[in-house]
Every structure is written in structure tokens, then in C-alpha cells.
Specification:
By secondary structure, the chain is an all-alpha fold. The chain has five helices and no strands. Helix 2 packs parallel to helix 5, helix 3 packs antiparallel against helix 4 and helix 3 packs antiparallel against helix 5. The model has no long low-confidence stretch (mean pLDDT 87).
């Protein structure tokens, strides 16, 4: 079994971590302004699914990265802005990571199916 050398710049996940952090911050901001937990869960699901379609290895990392920025954004909104999230909204922001698990592993599964379909050609 031979492996082809891959340059570190081609395999770097740093842009994807930045994308995940941006998605988490944007989702947290939407959660603070709209205050709809279902819409927040949909955004987390979509972000994790997209990130796992792009980088399917270790799907749990996208859930952690996207999910940790939602409560941090709510904390920043509490400290900086005049918008004060309710206690239930803060607790709900931690629960928003649960749909992210389904999205991440669903995205990784879709990527595996797409890779298998490409090899059949």
C-alpha cells in the first residue's frame, strides 16, 4: 500500500475551523436576536452537515466547535449589548448541539456515500 505525499497546506483544516467558528457565532447571534430554539437547531444542523460534507473525518469536532460558540455569543450579548437573554435561552443554547450531532454524522454518511458512488464510475 503506497500513500501519496500530501502537502500540509492542501490538508490544512484551519479554514474549516474558522468557518465553523463563524457559523457558531452567526447561529448564536440569530439565537439572541430571534429567540427561536428550533431555528437555532436548524442552523446548527445545517452548519455541521455542511462541514462534515467538506471534512468528514472526526465529525464530533464540528459539533464541538459550532456548539461552543453559541453560548459564548450569548455571553458576549449579555456583557456587551442591551439584549439580555433569558436563563432558559442560555440553557437551550447548550442543547442546540444535539441536532448538530445528527447533522455531523449525517453529513459524514452522505460524504461516504458520495465517495463510494464516485469510485463506481
Amino acid at each position: 500500500m503506497t500513500t501519496e505525499p500530501v502537502s500540509p497546506a492542501a490538508r490544512s483544516d484551519v479554514p474549516f475551523y474558522v468557518l465553523a467558528a463563524g457559523a457558531g457565532i452567526a447561529t448564536g447571534w440569530v439565537d439572541v436576536t430571534i429567540n427561536d430554539l428550533l431555528f437555532t437547531a436548524l442552523l446548527v444542523l445545517t452548519a455541521c452537515m455542511l462541514l462534515c460534507l467538506l471534512r468528514p473525518r472526526w465529525p464530533w469536532r464540528w459539533v464541538v466547535v459550532v456548539g461552543m460558540f453559541i453560548p459564548l455569543t450569548e455571553l458576549a450579548a449579555y456583557l456587551i449589548l442591551t439584549v439580555k437573554p433569558m436563563r432558559a435561552q442560555v440553557y437551550g443554547s447548550f442543547l442546540a448541539a444535539l441536532p448538530g450531532i445528527a447533522g455531523a454524522y449525517g453529513g459524514a454518511l452522505m460524504r461516504g456515500v458520495l465517495d463510494n458512488l464516485r469510485t463506481l464510475r
